Amino acid sequence: MNASNAGAVDWGDKGNRLRRGYRRWGLLMAILLGMTLVGCGRAPTPTATATATKTVLATATHTSTVETIFESHQPLVMTEQENLATPVVQAQAATPSPTPSPLPTATPTPTATPFPPGPPSKLGLLVGRNDPQIFDLLETGNVSVIKTLEYDANFVAEIKRISPQTLIVARYTPLPLPDLNQWDPIAAARAFVDLLAPIAVEPRRLANIDCWESYNEPVIYNAEQMASYAQFEAERTRLLAEMGIRSCVGSFSTGQPSLELWPAFFPALQAAKTWGGYLSLHEYSAPYMWFASGPHQLTEDGDEGDEGWLTLRYRKVYRNFLAPNGLDIPLVITETGIDGQVGNRPGPEGLGWQDFGRWWREQGGVSTTEEGFYVEQLAWYDAELMKDDYVLGATIYALAGPQGWQSFEIGGLTVNILEQYLAVHPQR
Predict the structure, then answer these.
(1) What pTM was computed for the model?
(2) What region does 310 belong to: left with phi over 0, alpha with psi -120 to 50, or beta?
(3) For 297-334, what is each residue's pLDDT tens digit?
(4) Is the peptide bond before 398 cis (omega within 30 degrees of 0)?
């Protein structure tokens, strides 16, 4: 049955005759009534019907996913100009309708204060997958480095097309941490190269990925383990270099390794220097990014000057070990940000920066937004990185990062603020 005929009734021939009769009778009565009214000297006055006035809703300008979600929960109120411009049809002799009470307006959310222009930024991004916001930031031309866990050939080629000067670091992800007490580091290096080489030598990856990491945050307890790991890193760096692939060695966690273990890692650093590689370190802190650096210690009398035990720890490594031995190779901080998992710190429990926003506000640190205050902390770290020529950049963890780390995510409003910061810190 056609939907337009649903519910129709078939009256039959007898019903048709009845309807024709009713119409004739109705017409005759209408004529007689009209004649009667004319005879009395007046015609019927039509009753005016009030026409409903169309309400004009204010539409929110799209800025980002986070802002759109926020705005969708705010009452939409006509502006005064829209209210005056709305045509109203007045009903004759109609009872005026009561004036509706205006809807309450939402308290505006303060916006972050724009950053002033400054020197070239060394901030970058760790990304776990393709996301449009990555390219929004790359369009500034001022993203120093991208560390990517997504090494799709088209993806990395597009990064370089938009921002040719951005350094791309990739990490081969399906690698469990090795048992450094129960392995053959040379054999492990060759096995690693056998896994990575078919991926890395693909022409677009080879042209666009600047270096590859291996194991993520290896756990090193003693000099023997460090020496073994150095053998692995030196051998895989050499083997990959023979194929035209450069390496990032290290990838140590924040606050690691113990400073006295660095000499045992010198063979890996020497190989990286020989083959045009880099050193990779991770630097996080909490509850603020500057905790455990300079005067920001657990004890009031502690002061590390312009160095730190978490962020800015790299200066201790370079000044005391690498530079004196001619091994001050280019450094990439391939993960940075707020990480509540660091030990011996003040503040509340939490993981990523999002878990600390309310506490920051309670401590009086937030003057505008929590997102803006986090970018202010990143800007502090960036200003320190700018002082060291051997530092190429630091990747914020994370934009479109791996699953399970949502509280570290900077997508949405944080990206918008970071975009403004990068735009006024252009690369030379």
Answers:
(1) 0.76
(2) alpha
(3) 999 899 999 999 999 999 999 999 999 999 999 999 99
(4) yes
